C-alpha cells in the first residue's frame, strides 16, 4: 500500500457511517522483554471483515488495537477509515477516541466499579435505549447479574459484561483483546457464536486478538500473524496455516 496514494483518497467530510474499509500504515517503537522493537503494520481491512491478530506475547497485537482506538499514538504513518483520516503524522492529525466510533473490549475489562452491570452497558450507548440494553443482557446471559457491581462478578462474568458494553456503542470498528480467554469451554463456544452474529448484524469491522487457533478458524475471515512487531503473514486462515510452518511457531 502506497501511503501517498492513500492520502489522495481521503475525504475529511466523510462521516463515520456503517461499513467502510480501514487502511493502516503505521510505525510505533515498542519496549518488549527483549528490548526495543518497531511495530510496523501496512494493511487494508475490508468492510465487514473479522480479522484475528495472532502471534506471541509482545508481538504488538494489543498495541495495534490501542493505536486504532486512539489511545496510543503511532510514531508516524496514516490511518484512514471510510475516507476519514483518523491519524496522519505528516499533517499532524490525530482525532480523539470519542470521534472514531470504535468499540474496545480491554483485556482487563475496564468496567466502571461504581456502576451496575446494566449501567456499565448503558453507559456505552450513544442513544439511550433500554430495550437494546435488555437484549444484550439476555444475549450474554446476564439477567441474574444486571444489578450487581463488577467487584461481585467472576472473571468470566466481567468478560461477558465488557463484550456487551463494547457492542452497545454500535461501533464501526470493534476491537476485542482476547475476549474469551477467561471463559470455560461451553461458554467460550457459545460466545464465539454470539461474536460472529453480532459482527454480522452490526456490519462492522472486527479486530480480535487471540492465542487460540480454534477461535481463528471458527471466527476469522482473515488472520494477520505478528512477530516482533512485523506482519509476517496474512490472509485467509486456511491459506496462512496450510503453509510449511506450523502455527505454534508463531507463538514462540
Q: What are its keywords?
A:
30% helix; single chain; alpha/beta; 252 residues; Rossmann fold
Radius of gyration: 18 Å
Mean pLDDT, nearest integer? Answer: 86
Strand count: 11
Shape: globular
Question: In percent, how helical is the residue content?
Answer: 25-40%
Structural class, please? Answer: alpha/beta
CATH class of the domain at 47-70 and 97-101 and 171-251: Alpha Beta
Q: What pattern of helices and strands is seen along the backbone?
A: HEEEHEEEEHHHEHEHEEH
Largest sheet: 6 strands, mixed
Q: Any low-confidence stretches, pLDDT <50, length ≥5? A: 1-17
Question: How do the strands of the widest beta sheet line up side by side?
Answer: 7-8-9-3-10-11
> What fraction strand?
25-35%
CATH architecture designation of the domain at 47-70 and 97-101 and 171-251: 3-Layer(aba) Sandwich
State the end-to-end CA separation. 29 Å
CATH homologous superfamily designation of the domain at 47-70 and 97-101 and 171-251: P-loop containing nucleotide triphosphate hydrolases
Number of alpha- plus pi-helical segments? 8
Stated plainly, the CATH topology of the domain at 47-70 and 97-101 and 171-251 is called: Rossmann fold
Amino acid at each position: 500500500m502506497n501511503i501517498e496514494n492513500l492520502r489522495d483518497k481521503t475525504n475529511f467530510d466523510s462521516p463515520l457511517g456503517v461499513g467502510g474499509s480501514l487502511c493502516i500504515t503505521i510505525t510505533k517503537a515498542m519496549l518488549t522483554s527483549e528490548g526495543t522493537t518497531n511495530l510496523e503494520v501496512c494493511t487494508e481491512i475490508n468492510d465487514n471483515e473479522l480479522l484475528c491478530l495472532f502471534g506471541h506475547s509482545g508481538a504488538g497485537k494489543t498495541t495495534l488495537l490501542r493505536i486504532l482506538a486512539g489511545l496510543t499514538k503511532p510514531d508516524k504513518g496514516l490511518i484512514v477509515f471510510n475516507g476519514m483520516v483518523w491519524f496522519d503524522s505528516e499533517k499532524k492529525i490525530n482525532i480523539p477516541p470519542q470521534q472514531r466510533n470504535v468499540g474496545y473490549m480491554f483485556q482487563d475489562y475496564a468496567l466502571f466499579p461504581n456502576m451496575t452491570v446494566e449501567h456499565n452497558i448503558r453507559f456505552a450507548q450513544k442513544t439511550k435505549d433500554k430495550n437494546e440494553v435488555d437484549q444484550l443482557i439476555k444475549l450474554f446471559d446476564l439477567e441474574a447479574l444486571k444489578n450487581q457491581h463488577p467487584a461481585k462478578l467472576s472473571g468470566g462474568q466481567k468478560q461477558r459484561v465488557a463484550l456487551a458494553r463494547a457492542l452497545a456503542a454500535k461501533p464501526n470498528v470493534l476491537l476485542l483483546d482476547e475476549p474469551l480467554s477467561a471463559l470455560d469451554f461451553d461458554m467460550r463456544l457459545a460466545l464465539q457464536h454470539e461474536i460472529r452474529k453480532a459482527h454480522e448484524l452490526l456490519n462492522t469491522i472486527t479486530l480480535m486478538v487471540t492465542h487460540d487457533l480454534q477461535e481463528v478458524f471458527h471466527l476469522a475471515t482473515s488472520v494477520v500473524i505478528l512477530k516482533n512487531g512485523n506482519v509476517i503473514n496474512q490472509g485467509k486462515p486456511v491459506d496462512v496455516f496450510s503453509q510449511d510452518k506450523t502455527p505454534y511457531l508463531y507463538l514462540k
